[in-house]
Amino acid sequence: MATFIPEWVRMSGRNVRLKRVLNALDDEHVVRRAIRPRQAELQAVDFFVQHPGRGWLAVSVQEAAFEEIDPDQLVPPPLAERFEQHLALLHGLGPACGLSEAALPALVLMWNCSAEQVRQLSKAYLGRYGVRLVCAEQFMALGGKLITGLLAALAPEAEQALMALAFPEAEIPAACTTRRVFRRDNSATLGRLFLDPQQEWAAKLDLRLPREQDDTAQDFAVRLVNGVAGSGKTLIILHRALMLAELFPKQQVLVLIHNTPIVADLKARLHQARGSLPANLEIATFFAWAGRQWRAVFGSQLRMPTDPRLLPGLVAACRQQWPELRQSEQQLIEELDFINGALIRDEPGYLAASRAGRGFALRPRERSQVWALYEAVTAALLKMDLRMWSALPHGLCHAVDRHARLRRYEHILIDEAQFFAPSWFQLATLSLQPQGRLFLCADPNQGFMKSRLSWKSVGLDVAGRTKKLRRSYRTTRAILEAAGQVLASCGRADGEDYLEPDFTGMEPGTRPTLLYSASPQDAVQRLAAELAGVGAGGPLPLGAFLVIYGDKLPKAALYDTLEQRFGPRRVWWFNKSEHKKTPPEGYGRDYLRMAYIDSATGLEGAVVFLVGVDDLFFDARLPGESDEALAERREENARKLYMAMTRAGQQLVVVTSRRLPQEVEGLFERERDAPPLQNGAAAPGAGR
């Protein structure tokens, strides 16, 4: 069945019949409509049919009756001249796209003419304009064969020119992709890149042309795109948001992403590619946007703890009233966040709430004590005019009498939706206009922060409204396979939410590289030397490289070492307070990027270095850790590794000071002088 971009919806009887014929084409055919045809020649085309091997065909549908355009009448009918002008536009379609006249074939479907009448028209016009005419009856009978016979292949440069002219919204700016960095021919003639048909199809789901907006009957529709790492989910979000903002300049469009580094990185790339964003488009982290909603609703600035020691200290002090609670301060803080994230209002609600996937069990008496701790910590913070971060959406969602003050949007698009808590989705839904639309992109294989949630459990019905993208376009098969095997070895890759990649046609690539160092401090020096060795700042721009670090690394020393190696203010450390929103010297410069693993989701680089994540490959039981907590930690670590590894477009290098278990080590190209496995280290799967 052919892919329709955008989908044909709310169709007339004529289009229902047309689509029935076009649907008979095989899966490789794409039926395209130009959303914003700027040239008259493009406006004359109702749709294009494209096939990757056979080429292109422009199709126009004419409803004029024969009597209205018959050229043999003594007095030409009024529509005859207009019909000839239409044929002339189709004849000039090739040159308008920078092609020769005969390069792009055109077919005119005469909907209200008989076969004999079409033969007469063809005698008059085919020789003059080279445009094939066909009646509706013949098209219904031979549509597939007819289209196949008329399709004409275009040279790559010609096809790129046609795509750029007719479908500019599908082009991927050079700044927004890793795929331009490595070219085998090393030539300067880098081809233009466009969204894959499946990516473009997903980006244009539910799009309505301006004249069709009034026909929308739904309050709002939810759409979910589930895709493997590198399948283009963020590109889909951005292209869809830009199209919506430009098609409907009076409507407000919001893109929400869960972490600060990816927002900063995207804005930098878009600034490089476009210069500025449409005035009605907003791209923000969830909490930055929610903070603005708080000010709109309550008229005051929200204050959060700035000292990372404050909340653990409060929990430690308050918990003394309930000595039976054996959980760590961190576990209790996560439980308080769970209460806020699940929008629980009172103790009965908490006692009845499902805690599946929380990692540790709580008896009813312990739940009551945790609730009392929640109230005590919340009250202590309020005395200081502070709140937990998780209390922000919780407070907004429960302020029902003030929801009229929320800023509303016609379109809200959420990237990396697998990391959103129920309260985040609820606030986004509350911020939609009555006929607004929510659009989600997610990778269930990376969902290590909000585990054990389903879309239904957060109030979103996506049944029958989900598209799965199984092909990765960012990375290579070797990297994606290695990441998948790490996920299977260190966690689980067979759950019902796991999305199996499709490796068909992927670039083979080379296996990830494993480098050993004597200590975490030596790993810093080794990484800097390797970066310089592969051409960072020389043959390859610094922007092609991304360094992802974990907890087992002196991060400040890493930053200082990289600055010494590549120059002051040439390293964009996304987690450095003054770098969180904009790069060190502003947009337009080339930077080596560096990010903490928990905030690296959504980032990408042609070459990625992963360092200081040694412990994530091991799963030795912690003191007092339950089986459930151990299983949860294993899976969380595995998903972190999967996410970090799949940030790489062409090459992945892991630098570690700890010998990895043999089953994991075998996934990498490694050095021969690897250190012995440390005593007491349990390999993945040990103790299961």
CATH architecture of the domain at 477-670: 3-Layer(aba) Sandwich
- Looking at how many chains there are and whether they match, the oligomeric state comes to single chain
How does the major sheet shape up? 7 strands, parallel
The CATH topology of the domain at 477-670 comes to Rossmann fold
Walk me through what this model shows:
The chain is an alpha/beta fold. It contains 23 helices and 21 strands. Among the domains are: 167 residues; 79 residues; 194 residues, Rossmann fold (3-Layer(aba) Sandwich), CATH 3.40.50.
List the keywords.
alpha/beta, Rossmann fold, seven-stranded parallel sheet, six-stranded mixed sheet, 15% strand
Short description:
The protein is 37% helix and 15% strand. The strands form 4 sheets. It has a 7-stranded parallel sheet with strand order 17-18-16-19-20-15-21, covered by helices on one side. A 6-stranded mixed sheet has the order 1-2-3-4-5-6, sandwiched between helices. By secondary structure, it is α/β, with parallel strands linked by helices.
Q: Could you outline the blueprint of secondary structure elements for this entry?
A:
Layout lengths: L2 E3 L7 H10 L7 E3 L7 H4 L3 E5 L3 E8 L3 H4 L8 H14 L1 H4 L9 E5 L4 H15 L2 E4 H15 L5 H11 L4 E2 L20 E2 L2 H7 L18 E6 L5 H15 L5 E5 L2 H15 L6 E5 H13 L11 H9 L10 H13 L5 H6 L11 H20 L7 H8 L10 E6 L7 H9 L1 E11 L23 E4 L7 H14 L22 E4 L3 H14 L11 E5 L5 H12 L4 E3 L18 E5 L8 E7 L15 H19 L2 E9 L5 H4 L3 E2 L18
Parallel strand pairs: 1-2, 4-5, 5-6, 9-13, 9-14, 10-11, 10-12, 12-13, 15-20, 15-21, 16-18, 16-19, 17-18, 19-20
Antiparallel strand pairs: 2-3, 3-4, 7-8
